[in-house]
């Protein structure tokens, strides 16, 4: 069975600094996708970045990058130049082929950006 | 603008009543999903639908029902059989059901049972 682990319930970072949010996953499937979502206090889940299991390069989207280490089964999110608006819950999720694109979500990490 | 809408934003229900949460998307996505989120926790899948007139149970389907009569609509009914329905409900859609397809979420409905 798939499982996502996010070991940091809460993180603090100073404004303008970079921060890494950890995500490890467990699957025996060769084809899978890894996603990161941001959930601000309003509740909406905002898609940030995607990494496929066959992608050779780490994904990047603006200030977000994904540090994908396949052998270690980790997919850490790196946020560069943190902003106050980055304060939110962050969820790592994964899918796998043939499972109706059903997500498995991690428990989330609450990020607080300090001025 | 394309997107996913959910209504109402807040919903209050008396015990023993059924309520229906609306979810509409104009992204022309084939697949739609319903999730439940309890305070301080991640999301759990209630139901999903890959095509019109077809849907599958997720991990916590008991006490819920859905329909998919139109591609753009996927309403969720919380029945009186659901023992603890107070939660935040999120609807999502994706272009397809491959592992590469991203799910996009609506703004959510917060349900409170009085």
Strand content of chain B: over 45%
- Unreliable runs of chain A, pLDDT <50, ≥5 residues? none
Strand percentage of chain A lies at over 45%
Structural class of chain A: mainly beta
Polypeptide structure, described:
The complex is a heterodimer of chains A (about 120) and B (about 110). Chain A is mainly beta and about 120 residues long. The radius of gyration of chain A is 14 Å and the shape is globular. Helix content of chain A is about 0%, strand content about 50%. Chain A has no helices and twelve strands. The model of chain A has no long low-confidence stretch (mean pLDDT about 95). In chain A, a hairpin with a 7-residue loop joins strand 10 (about 90-95) and strand 11. With about 110 residues, chain B is an all-beta fold. Helix content of chain B is about 0%, strand content about 50%. Chain B has strands at about 5, 10-15, 20-25, 30-35, 45-50, 55, 65, 75-80, 85-95, 105, 110-114. In chain B, strands 2, 4, 5, 6, 9, 10 and 11 form a seven-stranded mixed β-sheet that branches. Chain B is globular. The relative contact order of chain B is 0.33. The mean pLDDT of chain B is about 90. The chains are: A mainly beta (about 120), B mainly beta (about 110). The interface of A and B includes residues 32, 95 and 106 of A.
Topology of helices and strands:
The complex is a heterodimer of chains A (115) and B (114).
Chain A: E1 3-5, E2 10-14, E3 19-21, E4 24-26, E5 32-39, E6 46-52, E7 60-61, E8 64-69, E9 74-79, E10 88-96, E11 104-105, E12 109-114
Parallel strand pairs in A: 2-12
Antiparallel strand pairs in A: 1-4, 3-9, 5-6, 5-10, 7-8, 8-9, 10-11, 10-12
Chain B: E1 4-7, E2 10-13, E3 19-25, E4 31-37, E5 43-51, E6 54-57, E7 64-66, E8 76-78, E9 87-94, E10 104-105, E11 109-113
Parallel strand pairs in B: 2-11
Antiparallel strand pairs in B: 1-3, 3-8, 4-5, 4-9, 5-6, 7-8, 9-10, 9-11
């Amino acid at each position: 069975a798939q499982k996502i682990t996010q070991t940091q319930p809460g993180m603090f970072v100073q404004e303008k600094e970079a921060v890494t949010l950890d995500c490890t996953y467990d699957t025996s499937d060769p084809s899978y996708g890894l996603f990161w979502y941001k959930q601000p206090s309003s509740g909406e889940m905002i898609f940030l970045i995607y990494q496929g299991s066959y992608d050779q390069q780490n994904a990047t989207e603006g200030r977000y990058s994904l540090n994908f280490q396949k052998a270690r089964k980790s997919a850490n999110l790196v946020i560069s130049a943190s902003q106050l608006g980055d304060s939110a819950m962050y969820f790592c999720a994964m899918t796998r082929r043939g499972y109706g694109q059903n997500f498995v979500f991690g428990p989330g990490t609450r990020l607080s950006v300090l001025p | 603008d394309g997107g996913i809408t959910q209504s109402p934003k807040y919903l209050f229900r008396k015990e023993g009543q059924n309520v229906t949460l609306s979810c509409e998307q104009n992204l022309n996505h084939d697949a739609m999903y319903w999730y439940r989120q309890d305070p301080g926790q991640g999301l759990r899948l209630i139901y999903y639908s890959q095509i019109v007139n077809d849907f599958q149970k997720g991990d916590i389907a008991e006490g819920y029902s859905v329909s998919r009569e139109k591609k753009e609509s996927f309403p969720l009914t919380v029945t009186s059989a659901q023992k603890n329905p107070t939660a935040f409900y999120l609807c999502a859609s994706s272009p397809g059901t491959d592992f590469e397809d991203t799910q996009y979420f609506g703004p959510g409905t917060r349900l409170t049972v009085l």
